[in-house]
Fold this sequence. Notes:
Blueprint: E1 13-14, H1 17-24, E2 34-38, H2 46-49, E3 55-59, H3 63-72, E4 80-81, H4 91-94, E5 99-104, H5 110-119, E6 126-132, H6 133-140, H7 150-158, E7 159-167, E8 172-173, E9 180-187, H8 197-209, H9 215-218, H10 226-229, H11 243-257
Parallel strand pairs: 2-3, 2-5, 3-4, 5-6
Antiparallel strand pairs: 1-8, 6-9, 7-9
The structure holds S-adenosyl-L-homocysteine (SAH).
Amino acid sequence: xxxxxxxxxxxxxxxxxxxxxxxxxxxxxxxxxxxxxxxxxxxxxxxxxxxxxxxxxxxxxxxxxxxxxxxxxxxxxxxxxxxxxxxxxxxxxxxxxxxxxxxxxxxxxxxxxxxxxxxxxxxxxxxxxxxxxxxxxxxxxxxxxxxxxxxxxxxxxxxxxxxxxxxxxxxxxxxxxxxxxxxxxxxxxxxxxxxxxxxxxxxxxxxxxxxxxxxxxxxxxxxxxxxxxxxxxxxxxxxxxxxxxxxxxxxxxxxxxx
Length: 258
Ligand code: SAH
């Protein structure tokens, strides 16, 4: 590989074809015609996506990688988006069609990739790919776990999250300092919440900003009535609450206002 990795872009190129193929095989390819790969780099994963019965698009910020892809994957040429995934308005490519997301992601923007996916959930039935292992575990973790947090609750409100497998540093060049983990998100059949969704995001984020405090304390800014504060749920800390309980909590706050 002639291209030198750029650290600030989170570039760790995967050298292991078996793992690339395994990641490509982690999507079902059902229920959509298009797949978007974030950060294709030199195309190790792209190669396997191009064999699938879907249209593959890639979004890559690095012009050197884009040149490489243009020269080596001729079929892909007009579906290479040379942009920052976080800033680009994807409706320019997909309009309101559904598409899946996949990638060996740049780890420095992992959480933002997930947040943008959640914002676009109406169009994204499936998502899979590689993160830093800890982040992948956090997204998939359940209440009571030390790593359970904002990403876990918000993601699992809309998606079933499966941690698939761990990948060691030595299959990348340059090797990252940490293990990596591959996960898959499958959108729930019914992914609209029975509560105010905007308020749900605010409640979850606010509660975890002070994760050691009880909800009675951390949610003070919502100006709770004494009546509602008597509910036992407010004696808990955020990491104890399951996703359905966060939804219930949001409904309680919503009704408190009425
Ligand atoms: N998928 C390749 C490369 C992984 S490294 C492989 O497995 O070998 C992460 C890739 O994401 C790099 O190519 C980097 O240039 C790209 N990248 C980093 N930030 C990005 C962003 N904001 N939008 C799109 N691509 C990005």
